[in-house]
Design a protein that fits this description.
Helix content: over 70%
Number of strands: 0
Radius of gyration: 36 Å
Oligomer: single chain
Strand content: under 5%
Shape: rod-shaped
Length: about 110
């Protein structure tokens, strides 16, 4: 490590030590627990969560509108009752059209 003649540090050894120190520093910056790669992954995850949050907020608004219509709009309520639950007024007949599957047609 020391040159015996001048008591100075060997230049080749000092360069190697600096290079190793730089490699360790860059590795910890990029690959450590709080490194750059972890930061980028967390940033991507935050973006995905915000997108899901926006999606659910829109869904919530849509469901609140639906709830409001069901509570206050009798025509809409009747439409849903007829279409979704196949309900009818007294004296009306409900006809249900059944489509055949393509497998049944081949037989």
């Amino acid at each position: 490590m020391f040159n015996q003649k001048n008591n100075e540090i060997n230049p080749k050894l000092s360069i190697r030590i600096i290079i190793i120190a730089l490699i360790v520093a860059f590795a910890s910056i990029f690959f450590g627990d709080s490194g750059l790669l972890s930061y980028l992954q967390l940033k991507r995850e935050v973006k995905n969560i915000k997108n899901r949050q926006n999606k659910y907020e829109k869904l919530e608004l849509k469901l609140l509108e639906e709830k409001n219509k069901l509570q206050n709009d009798s025509k809409y309520l009747e439409k849903i009752a007829r279409e979704k639950y196949r309900m009818a007024k007294k004296g009306e007949s409900v006809y249900r059209i059944i489509k055949k599957n393509s497998k049944e047609k081949k037989k």
